[in-house]
Structure formats: structure tokens, C-alpha cells
Amino acid sequence: MQFYKPLHRKPWAQDRFGLVVSRGYVQLVRHSGRPKGRGSARPLQPLDPELGLSETDPDGVDSPAGPSAEEDGGPAAGRGDRGQSRRSRNNMRRLFMSLPWELLGPRPAMVSLTYPGDWKQWVPDGRAMEAHRRAFERRWVRRWGEPLVGVWAKEFQQSGRPHMHLYIGLPSQLSDDEFEGLRERTLMRHRFERALGRYQGRAVLRPIGTRYGGEFAMWIRTAWAEIVGTSGVVKNHHARGVDVAVMFWSDEVAVAADRTRVAAYLAREASKWRQKCPPEGFVGVGQYFGRWGRKVGFNPVVEEVEVDRAVAEELERRLSRWVGWKLYVDSYGASRTLRPKTGMILRHWGDGITAFGLGPEQAARLLCWSETAAARKAARADRQAGPLAS
Fold this sequence. Notes:
It is a single chain. The protein is of the alpha+beta class. The chain folds into 2 domains: 4-72 and 307-389, no CATH class; 100-296, no CATH class. 39% of the residues lie in helices and 16% in strands. The strands form 3 sheets. A 5-stranded antiparallel β-sheet has the order 7-4-6-5-8. Strand 2 (16-22) and strand 3 form a beta hairpin. Helix 2 packs antiparallel against helix 5. The protein starts with a strand and ends with a helix.
């Protein structure tokens, strides 16, 4: 199956191209050189960073189909109220793939913060949810005396109940016994999920507490219940409102693990489309993801190298083949019995593309191959133009 249907449109003469290299992705970007003035033609639409897709669908209709809130007579939808956009999901994926995850320390974990079943009275809108997230960060810093380092993502269950996932480093004051209790519970959770299924396995799993997590577990349970306001009111939320799962099952795995591959897994888990749609009436969602730890250096590690147009064409051709191959494998699988999930994609050559799963070493080889191919084609064109000129 063909995943790309190339559309050709003449680019601007002043366009500049760059190769962005990060720890987990390689991106070819185009900096538009559209001339200023009313007489210039309409520029190309900005493209989806992963596949070179326009933010407008091929038929010219915006992705959130249907009339706007203003046309219906209602208030205008705020940022994130209609769900996380495709551009935002790709920005989140690029952020996750470019962060120095080693700064989380030897004990990274995924912390899930949930709300009670009757969640609407505790978190009526996205502004309250954002206030809870900020309050959790402040409590963490006050209690443990160190900055919170990691990323966070907002999600919604099928029923509409909101929750948050935090991928963070556990505090250094956490004792070995407390951490081993959390690790034991994480291993138990995986055994229950394999035997009973994901949801039933988690339902029979004992909550974090004195046995699994010790003082840290009891503190985070109490802190979250007090932030939401259910402390002393909804007893079950104090026990089940927080879940902690360590990322590595042994110290040896933690030392040998490739943190960039772990980040790729986290990015896929955090970018599920079905969990990025807030329920009707839940407004003020704002950002769907973010990070903590800027002051300690937890920032994206990226580098951009300027390339000329001929090299950019060669790079785009190679990166397109890579993305097409990944789409083919992900859609069909090794058995080739699955129907592809991705149909034919319309994109314009020359507008850039992002290939996730490539790093600096692969980028260096791609750049070398592309420069060699561009030079070879330029030399061939000069030889062919020589007899004609004479």
C-alpha cells in the first residue's frame, strides 16, 4: 500500500532548510521564505511534524469537523477544550524524545493521579484540574526539599473522568525498603494483569500504603486527597486516588536500560487519541502536557544544522522512505494479516518531515549520504549541460 501521495508545488526561492537532530528523532524543517506584500501567493499550510501532513485535511476542512461554538450560539471553545490537536500530540512526542531522562535519577516511576467516581463535584472544569496539578508540585517541593523533575500529561477515561500521569524521579529521601515495596507491588501488578486482564488485575491489586511504599506512599495519598478535597469525605479515594509504578524492575535493568527507548514508550502511552478528548462541558483544559525541572537542566537536547536545498531534497526522500517503512510495519505487523490503519496520505514535497526512532548517529549517516548524492547529481547535471553550452 502506498502511504504517500506526493503533491508538487513550487517552493519559495528564499526558503531555508535545516536538519534538527535530537536523541530520539530526526526532523527536516523548512523555514518559509515567503516574500512580504499583498501580491505574493498564498503560502503552504504548516505541516504535521511526524508525517508532513497539513494541519488542514486534504479536502480543506479543519480536523475538528462541524460548526464552531460561535456558530451554534454558545461560547467560544478555549485552548484544549475540543481535545488535544494533532500538532500538540506531535510536539509532546518530540519533547519526550529529546529530554535528558537520566536527570530523573536511578528511581524513575509513573505516578497516576485520579479522581473519585463522582468526579464532577471535585473537578468541575479544567481550571480546577490545573490548580490541583500546581498544588501537587508545591507540596512535593515543601515536603521533600528538592525540585520535582519529570513530565506530566492530562487524560480522560471513556466515561469522561479526568486523570493525570506523571513520569518523575522519586525523591532521594525515599528509603531502600520503601522503594523495594513499590517495586514488589509493580511486579505483582504485572502478574495480576497477565492472569486476570488489565482492569480486573488492577482492581484486585492492593493500594500503595505502609506495606507498599511506606511513609512516601502514605504522604502522597494524603497530599492528593487533601488537594482534591476528598480527605475525610471519600475514604476510597484516599486509598485508590494515587498509583505508583516503578519503571525498572531491578537495579541492573535500570543501569543498562536505554532511557531514550523508555521515553519512546512513554510518548506512545501519553499520546493516545481516545484519552485526549474531554467530556462535553469540561472547559479550561489548557495544556495537555508539560515538564518540571527546567532549572536543573531538564530541557530538550536538540541541534539544528543548516542544509542547502539539494541536500534537503535527498534527506526528505530518505526520511520519507523510513517513515513509510515504519507505517507499513506498524499497520501490517510481522504476519501481514492486519489491515493497515493508515490510508493514503497527502503531503507536499519540500515541506519537511520527522522520523522518530532515529538518533544522532543515524542522522550523521543520512546527512553524509544525502550530501554525496546531491554532489553526484550536481556533477551529472554539469556534465550534461556542458555539451549544450558549447
